[in-house]
Amino acid sequence: MYDHRRLGRELGLFGSDPLIGSGLPYWLPDGATVRHTLEEYVRDAERRAGYQHVYSPVLGKRELYELSGHWSHYNEDMFPPMDLGGEQVVLRPSLCPHHAVIYRSRARSYRELPLRMAELGGMYRAELSGVLGGLSRVRAIQLNDAHIFCTLDQAADEAQAALGMIRRAYEALGIRPSRYRLSLPGPGGKYVAAPEMWERSTTLLTEVLDRSGLPYEEGEGEAAFYGPKIDVQVADSAGRESTLSTVQIDFHQPERFDLHYIGPDGARHRPVMVHRSVIGSVERAVAHLIEEHGGAFPAWLAPTQLVILPISDSEVPAAEAVAEHCARLGLRARLAGPERGSLGARIREDRRVPYQAVIGAKEAADGHVALRLRDGRRLDPRPADAALRRIGALVDAHRTELWECGEVGIW
Question: What's phi and psi for 243, nearest 5 deg?
Fold first, then answer.
C-alpha cells in the first residue's frame, strides 16, 4: 500500500506550507515535470480528436453563476464573492459557464457541429479543512475539461467517443477503473427540476454505456445538479473510491444561456452540451498515479527517464556525451557519477527510474551502453544511439512496457 502524500515528499514531487494555506499544494521540479507531461499528453490527444483549445478567466461575475444555476445549487462549495467596483466576482467552481459564453460569442451554423471546446484551466472549491489531503482533495484545481456543442442526433456518438478517449488514456497511464457508474439524481432540492430533461439525458447515457459494452452500476444521488453523468471510478490502495473521469449530457445550460445554432432549414435550434473530462483534475490524477505505481511512473511520464551510470571517473566523459545525446533526443536523463557511491548503491537509489545506462571501460571505448531496466532485466551492450532511439520510440508511443519481448536476460 502506497500513500501519495508520503511518497510525494520522499520523491520531491510536491509540498505544502501553512503560510500558503491548506489544500493549496505547490509542485516541485520533478512533480511539475510529471504534471506538464500529463497535460501535454491530454492536449495532444484532444487535438487529434478534433478539439479546439481555449483559455478563460478563473473569475466571473456572480450573475454568470446565477444564470448557470451554480449559485442556487452549488454555492455552499464556492468561495464567497469579492466586491470590485460595485460588482461581485467569484472564483469559478466550474469551467462550463465560461465555455457556454464563448460558444454564444457569435452565431453558429449546424456545419460547425459538433464543436469540441477544451481547456486545462483552474477552478476553486471551498472544501472544508477536514477533508483536505495531499493532492487528492484540494481547493485550487487544475481541471482537464471539455464541452462538446452538438445536435441531439450527435450527442450519443460524442459521449461514446469521449469514453473511448478515457479508456485509451488509462491504458497509456497504466491504471484501471474500479467500475463505471451511471450517476443519477436522488431526493432533495439540489437538482434542477426538469423531469423530461433528466429522462432524455439518462436514456442517452444508458445507450452509450450499453453500446460500449461496459458493465456499470447506477448511483442514486451522485448526479451533477444539472444532469446525470457517467463516472469512471478508481480505487486507491486502501480500496477507497473516487471519481477520476466523467461524461455528461446536459440540456440545462444550453437553455439557461439561450444557446442556438442555425440549422439546414435556416431556423434556430438548441444544441446539446456534452461535458467530458479525460483525467479529471490533474491533482487527483497524479495522486492516483503515484499510489498506483508506487512512484515508478510509466517511462513516458517519469520525471527522469534514464539515469547514466559511469562505473569509474574514467567513464564520466563518455557518460556526459550520452547525457548530451539524450537532451538532443528529448529524453529526460541524469548522470549519477561514482562520487555518489558504488554502482550497486546508485542502482538501488535510482530503482524507480525506468532505464539505467551502465558505462564501463569497454562500453566507453566502443560508444556503447549496457541498459538495465527498472524491473531488473538487462540488455547486452549496444550502440548508445540505437539504445536511446529505441527508448525514445517507446516513450513517444506512450507505452507502459519498458522493452519489447525477447533479447533480454536477467541481471
Answer: -90, 125
- Indicate the DSSP class of residue 77: G
Helical ranges in 11-151 per DSSP H = 29-48, 62-68, 70-74, 96-103
pTM of the model: 0.93
Type of residue numbered 61: K
Kindly list the distances between the CA atom of residue 103 and the CA atoms of 152, 153, 176, in Å, as whole numbers in the listed order.
Answer: 17, 19, 34
Q: Is residue 24 within 8 Å of residue 140, measured between CB atoms?
A: yes
Q: Return the bridge partners of 15, or none.
A: 26
The predicted-structure confidence for 215-249, as pLDDT tens digits, reads as follows 999 999 889 888 899 999 999 877 888 899 999 99
For the chain, what is the total number of helices (H) and then of strands (E)?
13, 22
Task: State the distance between the two ends of the chain, measured CA to CA, in whole angstroms.
Answer: 27
What gap in Å lies between CA 200 and CA 313, rounded to an integer?
Answer: 70
Cα–Cα distance, 293 to 243 (Å, whole number): 18
Measured CA to CA, the distance from residue 75 to residue 23 in angstroms comes to 19
Among left, alpha and beta (phi > 0; psi -120 to 50; other), residue 376 is left
